[in-house]
Write a structure and sequence with these properties.
The protein is an alpha/beta fold and 725 residues long. The chain has 4 domains: 9-140, Rossmann fold, CATH 3.40.50.2300; 161-284, PAS domain (Beta-Lactamase, 2-Layer Sandwich), CATH 3.30.450.20; 294-453, Reverse transcriptase/Diguanylate cyclase domain (Alpha-Beta Plaits), CATH 3.30.70; 478-717, TIM Barrel (Alpha-Beta Barrel). Strand 4 (89-94), helix 4 and strand 5 (112-115) form a beta-alpha-beta unit. GO terms for molecular function: cyclic-guanylate-specific phosphodiesterase activity.
């Protein structure tokens, strides 16, 4: 016997398990003993059936089988081994030596064939050789399995990456690209391999993208990083933004394979990298940038962007010695819509106004929302102020038609101030400020128009600022006074009413008349507080005279457009009247035709509510605005006041009297009372009497007087005036 040797390498940490099957007990025992002396774990089987049972219960690394066993021969045992334990090697130890038997055994999977009687050393050498081969095969299979798992893992990682992973050859052709390109761009990896990467670059980025890989300084420590737009499959206009990072491939540290050879060129990979989809980030950045420079409601440039463009336009105009114009636009009657219908409707109106205004612009003009209902418009490179005038007229005309907001039809106008560079200012701030000043002059003259800035407006503006400050103080110091002008019956010379007129007792400028400060009160929104003071005082004064024996005396008060247009106009007016216990039937409110026509539906509803309480309605300055028989018929009008400009035209034999004739005839036909304003002469009074004009007022009976004078008049003469002033 050969001396014992160390455990065979095939056994690993445990001795190899060997099944020995032979029907000769003596041979079986000696063979098992021989193997055990080499530290093999041996299991004996005295028959083929017993060997099959052992195969069912245990696992083996090697089986030594005799072929000729009476119950179950060695071939049957080999079949069971192949079925149950295919990794178990088989060595045939048999007395059969015919070629057919040996060939059959080898075909059935035997790894070697030892003929009986056998040489012990030869048998051991054969066993160790077979076990060694088995060990190498298992190690190879293990390594192959690990490689396959590793490759599957890396393939999974690469294809599951949220980024596109790619490899390029030195000419920029794609050697490899992962499956992510399909979900992000719609391309199959196979159709891109071999193509130059420019095929998926947006046309605007082709030059920059191809140039990026030519840089001489690209290295592992200094990869090339750039942002480009990539086209999606089938739609060249649909692009997504990607951040690409590319590294060079070191050919000495990484061997090339056929997988990474690009297309028909078969060139080795030179670059590898990733392309990360940053579309959402770019869109978020674009949205943030849009928010910073645009108004989100109207989508127009905001104040900051407008100033940037104006600054640039001024620089270009100065260099080319051209003119430009800045317009300041303020919507008329917008606040009424916003307060009446709510902010949601106000927002819809601003969007609709924006849509109409944009249709009037030239290419290159900039319309911005400056804030609230204010807009600014930049007209670069105009030839003369007439260009700006034409645009202003188009803007005004564009807003003439009503806007449909749900079930409501509303009207708005626009007041436009225009400043032309360089005549009205050399800087951005000067142009905007002067356009704003010109716009306020439009407001002061009745709104819904345009004006160019002139130097004289600056003086008026400085005066306006100091006057505004004084007016605010006047409300605090109670410097406002109420004077009353009698309204006299033309037949009896009796006082039938008193028109309340405000005066301002200015501490430095003396007594100021409405024309001196009411437009400013309108602009600064002080008109509401001012009117409340006048109404309160008039209700107290006239209410006292009514209670002292003049029950039919009528109080006439003028109301501003902003008051009438306010959503709570009716409630506020009636609350103040009731607070003073003033009889509603003795109150007559005077409004102009322009106020009525600005929103006929809303004003009609309000006037009917007032008329139902007994309040009388008078149309002031009739004939100077939108005269319309339609609204006179529809509304609860009680009185028409003939404007003094028509009364002044009354001269013997002059045609101007025809207008008065028409107004008086119209009033008679509609059964309305008539009050003629501005009566100053006997001729005027006589002419009006001949027409049947009911009431007159004017300097013929004296100017408006303080309450104390009216009290003395009523005590001395009752309600009657003398026949002459």
């Amino acid at each position: 016997m050969a001396p014992e040797q160390s455990r065979p390498p095939s056994s690993g940490f445990y001795p190899a398990r060997i099944l020995v099957a032979d029907d000769e007990p003596r041979l079986l025992t000696s063979l098992a003993a021989l193997l055990r002396r080499r530290n093999f774990d041996v299991t004996e089987a005295g028959s083929g059936r017993e060997a099959c049972d052992q195969l069912t219960d245990q696992s083996f690394d090697l089986a030594l089988l005799d072929l000729n066993m009476p119950d179950t021969d060695g071939f049957a045992v080999m079949e069971k081994i192949a079925r149950l334990q295919p990794d178990c090697g088989v060595i045939v130890v048999s007395g059969e030596s015919s070629f057919s038997t040996v060939s059959r055994a080898l075909r059935r999977g035997a790894l070697d064939y030892i003929r009986k009687p056998f040489d012990p050393e030869e048998l051991l050498a054969t066993v160790e050789s077979v076990l060694g081969k088995q060990s190498l095969i298992k190690a190879h299979e293990l390594i192959q399995t690990r490689l396959e798992k590793s490759e599957a893992l890396h393939r999974y990682i690469v294809n599951s990456s949220p980024d596109i992973v790619f490899m390029l050859d030195k000419t920029g052709h794609i050697c490899f690209i992962n499956n992510k390109v399909e979900s992000l761009l719609g391309y199959q990896p196979a159709e891109l391999c071999g193509e130059h990467f420019r095929v998926i670059l947006d046309d605007r980025d082709v030059a920059r993208g191809t140039y990026a890989l030519r840089g001489p300084d690209i290295s592992a420590d200094n990869p090339r990083t750039l942002e480009v737009r990539l086209k999606t499959r089938g739609n060249s206009k649909a692009t997504r933004h990607f951040e690409i990072t590319a590294f060079p491939v070191d050919p000495q540290s990484w061997p090339q394979t056929g997988v990474t050879l690009g297309g028909s060129t078969r060139q080795p990979a030179r670059y590898y990298g990733i392309a990360r989809d940053v579309t959402e980030r770019k869109e978020a950045e674009a949205f943030i940038n849009f928010q910073a420079y645009h108004d989100l409601l109207t989508r127009l440039p905001n104040r900051a962007l407008f100033k940037d463009r104006l600054e640039l336009a001024i620089t270009q105009a100065r260099r080319s010695e051209q003119k430009l114009a800045v317009m300041f636009l303020d919507l008329d009657r917008f606040k009424v819509v916003n307060d009446t219908l709510g902010h949601a409707m106000g927002d819809r109106l601003l969007q609709a106004v924006t849509h109409r205004l944009e249709k009037c612009l030239r290419r290159g003009d900039t319309l911005s929302r400056f804030g609230g209902d204010e807009f600014t418009l930049l007209l670069p490179s105009i030839h003369s102020p007439e260009d700006a005038r034409g645009i202003a007229k188009k803007l005004i005309q564009a807003l003439k038609d009503p806007f449909q907001l749900g079930n409501h039809e509303v009207f708005v106008g626009v007041s436009i101030g225009i400043a032309v560079f360089p005549d009205a200012g050399n800087t951005m701030d000067q142009l905007i400020q002067n356009a704003d000043i010109a716009m306020y002059h439009v407001k002061a003259r009745g709104k819904d128009g345009y004006r160019f800035f002139t130097d004289s407006m600056s003086i008026d503006t400085a005066h306006r600022l100091s006057l505004e400050r004084d007016l605010r103080l006047a409300l605090e110091r109670d410097e406002l006074r109420v004077h009353y002008q009698p309204q006299v019956c033309s037949r009896t010379n009796q006082v039938v009413g008193l028109e309340a007129l405000v005066r301002w007792q200015h501490p430095e400028r003396g007594l100021l008349y409405p024309a001196d400060f009411l437009p400013l009160a309108e602009e600064t929104r002080l008109i509401g507080k001012l009117s409340e003071r006048v109404l309160d005082q008039a209700c107290r004064d006239v209410g006292r005279w009514i209670n002292s024996g003049h029950p039919t005396l009528r109080l006439a008060v003028n109301l501003s457009p902003s008051q009438v247009e306010h959503p709570r106009f009716v409630e506020t007016l009636l609350e103040r009247v009731r607070a003073h216990r003033f009889p509603a039937r003795n109150l007559e409110i005077e409004i102009t035709e322009n106020v009525i026509m600005s929103d006929l539906e809303q004003i009609s509803r309000k006037l009917k509510e007032l008329a139902d309480t007994g309040v009388r309605i008078a149309i002031d300055d009739f004939g100077t605005g939108y005269s319309s028989l339609n609204y006179l018929h529809r509304l609860p009008i009680h009185t028409l006041k003939v404007d003094q400009s028509f009364v002044k035209a009354i001269r013997s034999g002059e045609d101007g009297a025809c207008i008065v004739n028409a107004i008086v005839a119209m009033a008679h036909g509609l059964k309305l009372e008539i009050v003629a304003e501005g009566v100053e002469t006997d001729d005027q009074l006589s002419y009006l009497k001949s027409l049947g004009c009911h009431q007159v007022q004017g300097f013929f009976y004296g100017p408006a007087r303080p309450a104390a004078d009216i009290s003395r008049l009523l005590r001395r003469d009752g309600l009657a005036f003398a026949s002459t002033a």
